Amino acid sequence: MKKVLIAAGGTGGHIYPALALADYLKQENIEVVFIGSSKRMEAQLIPEKGYRLITQDIETTQGGIWNKIHYLFTMIRTVKDTKQLLRQEQPDVCVGFGNYISVPLILAAHQLHIPTMISEQNSFAGKANVFLGRFADAVELAYERSAKDFNPAKVRVLGNPQASVSAQKKADRNLLKEYGLSDEQPVVFVMMGSLGSESVSKIIDEACDLFDDGFQILIASGKKNDYEFQTTNPNVIIKEYVDGAGMLMTADLAICRAGATTLAEIAASGVPSVLIPSPFVPNNHQYYNALELSEHGASVLLEEKNLTPGLLADTVNDLMKDSDKRDKMRLAAKEMAKPNACKDTADWLKEISK
Question: Is residue 207 within 8 Å of residue 229, measured between CB atoms?
């Protein structure tokens, strides 16, 4: 196997696992080329990592009947163009990481008899991947729960490639000093995604004044969060952006959303967590992601619709008082991690390429 084409885009949950796999393949001297949109975050992230990005701008299926008809005709044209692209690039394998951007690549590759793989990182499979599962030769999953949507003969549960990256990180206590924290007290790390959440921020803000003494709280507020924290708790430090993966490795407890990449990092780092899944995602998939960890005893699941400052504060205070429980949660998270996800996925790609 000499060359792989990867379609990834839309959100970090699709892009970061794809980049993790690409970095591993690059170490194996395998060329990786990406396909994505020129209008979404992959247009910046992928070239920044040094990979060539071929752009395809496709309308989504959102909207009324005319939008869906327009999407259909656009997709037919894009699949035709992608077949011509594949004849030029001549990849050994094509991989789709979900989202509608994967559809033309996998369909075109299937029609040209080029081996294909799709990767689903959520416990509730997305519509694009469920559709593409009919055509793909291999279906790589992060969670057993999503296997029900695919042909069992095509499925392997190998994990999220991002977990391989996180597993290589070490706890860096210097991060605490960098963010104004003490190295002598436990740390609760709060991160509601890279953009933040105004609705949850208000609850967290009010909960801060109910937290016990004896531990510090670092809040990553997010780049597009307009909420201004009012807490007077001297143990709370608020930063717009921090090294999230590094802090998950270093913190004693994390309060997070339940995106696929975040949960892969939580499992790989073994940090006990309180998960507040976003209700504003397709198929409520973050809830099902969080359910995977909570059912294994690695996390406490709090739904946003039931969340109050008192409930959040009581949950955090109880966990910070009980180091034995946190240790059990840490072990449970580690048991769910698949640190060899990159290698195992790459090996499977080599297998189907033959």
Answer: no
Does pLDDT of 279 surpass 80?
yes
Q: Which of 187, 188, 171, 149 is nearest to 265 (CA)?
A: 171
Q: Structure pTM?
A: 0.86
What mean pLDDT is predicted for residues 82-106? Answer: 96
Q: What is the pLDDT of residues 245-257, one digit of tens each?
A: 899 999 999 999 9
Of 166, 84, 86, the residue nearest 336 (C-alpha): 166
Domain boundaries, the chain: 3-160+339-353, 168-336
- Rounded to whole angstroms, the Cα distance separating 295 from 332 reads 10
In degrees, rounded to 5, the angle at the alpha carbon of residue 247 between the alpha carbons of residues 19 and 263 is 55
SS3 content of the chain, % helix, strand, coil (to 5): 50, 15, 35
The domain made up of 3-160+339-353 is a member of CATH 3.40.50.2000: yes
Instruction: Provide the CATH number for the domain formed by 168-336 in this structure.
Output: 3.40.50.2000
First to last CA, the chain: 8
